[in-house]
Amino acid sequence: MKAVYATDLSAASDAAIETDTCLECLDRIGVDTLHLVTVVPANVHAGTPGIDHEKRRRRALRRYRETIEAGGLEVESHVVRGTPHRRINGIAETVGANLTIVGSRGKRPLENRLIGSTTRNLARTTVVPLLVTRVERQTDDPALLEGQLFRRVLYATDFSENAERAFEAFSYLRHATREATLVHVETPNSRQPASDGAPDERLAELATRLESWDVDATVDVREGDPADEILTAEAEYEPTTTLLGSRGQSRLRRLLLGSVSESVVANALGNVFLVPPERTA
């Protein structure tokens, strides 16, 4: 598997790339090549008096390369200019990546929007699964909040086609997953037809599949606001990563990402693994 690792060469990027457990988790799920992508925004000038930005980029990328290769993965570097999320998506398509990874600082007090514009735009436009890794805030030497990326997974589903596609990610995540909690949130407008089976029964079927892969699985059916309940479940179960599809049952254009997915990506305490719909011709 190939993964695009978007980095701005900041201390937060250092924390993610130089965490051994993070690289080990990627290796376990089948990632053998990392494409490091640094995007220089088009409105940023090439130089600043007294600072050699190009030299700093080369030095940081060389250090990342040495760390990643020491972890047993191959690595290629790309330094490009343009709009970050567009260039990252473009490179992911060009190299045939199976996954894009981007870091995001943890929560800021008194904020509703807790992720940067690049992460948010990637979540809305990515054509491959997107892993958002959480990094500590308000420290000069940040660390990943959870380096064991996929050890404990919270999977949220509304039983939509895209949610089923997200579940299929367990086909490779299972090699690094020991526990999974499967959550469905019922709302008055989301009751499933009786012919589809009760939610707890459908979750139990998924749990049986995971247990056949030696993943301990539990199910949890809740009622209320989906985003709020998923975030509450995350706080209760303390997963290392929350897994969900980027588009639910709504077909409204304004919910392309889906209000639920957007809220989870923005407000989750830990890592989030977002799976987009399958591309159509």
TrEMBL record:
The protein's name in its UniProt record: Universal stress protein
Residues covered by the UspA domain: 2-134, 150-276
Organism: Natrarchaeobaculum aegyptiacum
Superkingdom per UniProt: Archaea
Coiled coil: none
InterPro entries in the cross-refs: Rossmann-like_a/b/a_fold (IPR014729), Universal_stress_UspA (IPR006015), UspA (IPR006016)
Family: Belongs to the universal stress protein A family.
